[in-house]
Amino acid sequence: MRAGTARGDPRSMPIIEVSGLRKAYGGRPVVDGVAFTVEEGEIFGILGPNGAGKTTTVECIEGLREPDAGAVRVAGLDPRADRNALTRILGVQLQESELQEKLTVREALELYSACYPNPVGWRELAERLGLTGRLTARFGKLSGGQKQRLFIALALIGNPRVVVLDELTTGLDPRARRDTWTLIEEVRDSGVTVLLVTHFMEEAQRLCDRIAVIKRGRVAALDTPAGLIRHSAGGTVISFAPSRPLADGDLAGLPEARTLERRNGRLTIHGTDTTAGAVISLLARHQITPHQLRVTDATLDDAFLELTEDREN
Amino acid sequence: MSAATAVLKAEFRLFVREPYNLFWIVVFPTVLLVIFGLIPSFREPNSGLGGDRIIDVYVPVNVLLAMIMAGILALPPVLSGYREHGILRRMSTTPVRSVTLLAAQIVLHFAAALGSALLVIAIGRLAYDVALPGHLSGYLLALLLGALGALALGAAVAAVTPTTRAATVAGSVIIFPAMFLAGVWIPVQAMPDVLQRIVEYLPFGAAAQALNQAAAGGWPDWTNLGVIAAWAVALITAAVRWFRWE
């Protein structure tokens, strides 16, 4: 979107800095010491269970909420004190908001376009979001997916440097979801930094350069999608039905194996590539046939569940 | 096009897409005047009104009715709804402040109320030969203060009601005493003395008296103008003090 922005080294400069962020509602801490930095030109994901404090965190970045403690900077600006300057460089898609019921798509695009000093062309944006056929439709008559696409358009219309998308593809069908992902990648490739709050692991894995997993108001992990998967239990999942039982002692000796479970005669081992190799040699040594052998990578889903699991203590 | 102009243009389009509100603000006061004028006795000089005809007295009353419809019936649900549905919040993330949306709606309701007032005066003159206001600048001042008071009351209602529904209910409760004070049922001049003296210290009663005096050709009593202005200031202060943006 942002024409003529030289990318240079896109990983060199933090554009969003959050440190020690705290926010409580009625004495109940919702955000409890969140800290992370987002580099210019990356797609940064915020993942977490419902009520983990994701939306409150991004609302502090958008300047919609006053933090109780901590510091937030977006391109060097304080979202509350420098609100006016911030709104010129930050595009926002809110999780819950509506437009005037009887405002048409075209009028909404024209109105929000007029709000910014240097907007992108709304016709092109409408085209890319598949809204051209609905320009004369009133907001109240749009489907959930069309409303969502309109909000994405409004987030991008001001030609922002940073765009915050809260639940980007909620309400979109699989086709529209994939189209939106392509659009967001194009937006990133043009030099815009994207902060993405999402529930969809597939979306996070596909789009995000880095992900912060937030749990109970804190950052539980921060890494690339591949890194999160690698460091969670079972980067590699080996499962098979052995032709005859394996001795516990042999299995206990497997290198880098983290978990092991037997169910219905099927053995599932979470470990690494080294574990997989050792399993194969072990089976060969004992001349055991592994029926229906599957060696797969763990997904972000597995990593997410592990990271956000509520353990005792 | 400047951002404020764009907001006003969009809000104007939305305003004219509400036929229900347009009817009550712009059409109803004039229709009511026409109906009153069709009653023969309302067109006869009335000794209780110092020789005026009832229809003469009802022109300022219906002018005030236009203000009441705009300020109390139409405005509060719009303002409350903009907050309830996150429209203000969405606008506040752009370089345009969300107060611009509220201001645009207040300006449009104000303009519609004034247009309706002119229509009432014009139809009164053309259809029933009601004299035009004798003291034009006094009338205009009373009119503007009355509109300000009505819109301030509407804004205060929107400030304290969390939802569109609550604003509609509150508006439709307040509208009856407001119409009574303006003299829709009994013109203020025809009220018993004691009641008249009380009503003069309430927003629409004071406006009704000021309009009557200016219609008759005199400068409105400063006490009446002061009462309306004081109410307007108090209500605006309350609206600003209690308005929640979310």
Number of helices of chain A: 11
CATH architecture identity of the largest domain in chain A: 3-Layer(aba) Sandwich
- Here the CATH topology of the largest domain in chain A equals Rossmann fold
Beta-strand residue percentage of chain A: 25-35%
Largest sheet of chain B: none
Element pattern of chain A in H and E: EEEHEHEHHHEHEHEEHEHEEHEH
CATH superfamily of the largest domain in chain A: P-loop containing nucleotide triphosphate hydrolases
Element pattern of chain B in H and E: HHHHHHHHHH
In oligomeric terms, what are we looking at? Answer: heterodimer
Structural class of chain B: mainly alpha
Transmembrane segments (chain B): 21-39, 59-79, 99-124, 136-160, 167-186, 222-243
InterPro entries (chain B): ABC-2_transporter, ABC2_TM, ABC2_TM_bact-type, ABC_2_transport
Domain ABC transmembrane type-2 (chain B): 20-246
Subcellular location (chain B): Cell membrane; Membrane
Q: What would your notes on this structure say?
A:
The complex is a heterodimer of chains A (313) and B (246). Chain A has helices at residues 54-62, 83-89, 105-114, 122-128, 144-156, 174-189, 201-207, 225-231, 248-252, 273-285, 300-308; strands at 14-25, 28-39, 43-47, 69-74, 90-93, 162-166, 193-197, 210-215, 218-223, 236-242, 259-263, 266-271, 290-297. Chain A has 313 residues and is α/β, with parallel strands linked by helices. Chain A folds into two domains: 14-229, Rossmann fold (3-Layer(aba) Sandwich); 233-297, Alpha-Beta Plaits (2-Layer Sandwich). Chain A has a six-stranded mixed β-sheet with strand order 5-6-7-3-8-9, with helices on both faces. In chain A, strands 11-12-10-13 form a four-stranded antiparallel β-sheet, covered by helices on one side. Chain A has a three-stranded antiparallel β-sheet with strand order 2-1-4, covered by helices on one side. In chain A, 41% of the residues are buried. Chain B is mainly α. Chain B has one domain (3-242). Helix content of chain B is 76%, strand content 0%. Chain B has ten helices and no strands. Chain B has helices at residues 3-16, 19-38, 54-84, 87-92, 99-128, 136-160, 164-182, 193-199, 203-215, 222-242. In chain B, helix 1 (3-16) packs across helix 5 (99-128), helix 2 packs parallel to helix 5 and helix 9 packs antiparallel against helix 10 (222-242). The radius of gyration of chain B is 18 Å and the shape is globular. The mean pLDDT of chain B is 93. The chains are: A alpha/beta (313), B mainly alpha (246). Chain B: It is a multi-pass membrane protein. Chain B: It comes from Actinomadura craniellae. Chain B: This is Transport permease protein. Chain B: It is found in: Cell membrane; Membrane. Chain B: One of its GO terms (molecular function) is ABC-type transporter activity.
